[in-house]
Amino acid sequence: MGKPRELNLKINEITPEVMEELASLAEEKISSFLSENLPFKGDFSIIVSVEKASDSLNIVMDVGVRGGFKDMVDYNEYIEKAIQYARKFLEEKLKEYSSREAV
Predict the structure, then answer these.
(1) Are 35 and 79 in contact (CB under 8 A)?
(2) 6 assigned to some structural domain
(3) Count of beta carbons in the 10 Å neighbourhood of residue 50
(4) Which residue range forms the structural domain that includes residue 75?
């Protein structure tokens, strides 16, 4: 599980629609990363939730991969890289949102 990060962004007025869009975009990023990078075809499941807790956002990404050749492939490594890829993307989106809110 990743450590919580504090970005100090202005998200007080974030709407449920924006949070839903962020979750959907993160799911797409994880899915595309895994589809493009897994060395063997495997099944994967992705759950992303974004919820507001007072003046912060809680973003949870749960990814599971099932596939063959477990003795040859470290699927956890691919999962971690996919989550980091989506996390960086979300941080950029939140920075964009925060800068619009500050205006």
Answers:
(1) no
(2) no
(3) 22
(4) 11-97
pTM for the whole structure? 0.81
d(CA 27, CA 61): 8
pLDDT by residue for the chain (103 residues), tens only, comes to 455 565 556 677 788 898 999 999 999 999 999 999 988 777 899 999 999 887 788 899 999 988 777 666 788 999 999 999 999 999 999 888 877 765 5
Indicate whether 41 belongs to any domain: yes
Neighbours of 27 (CB within 10 A): 16
CA distance 31 to 27: 6
Cβ-proximal residues to 95 (8 Å cutoff; 6+ apart), any chain: 7, 9
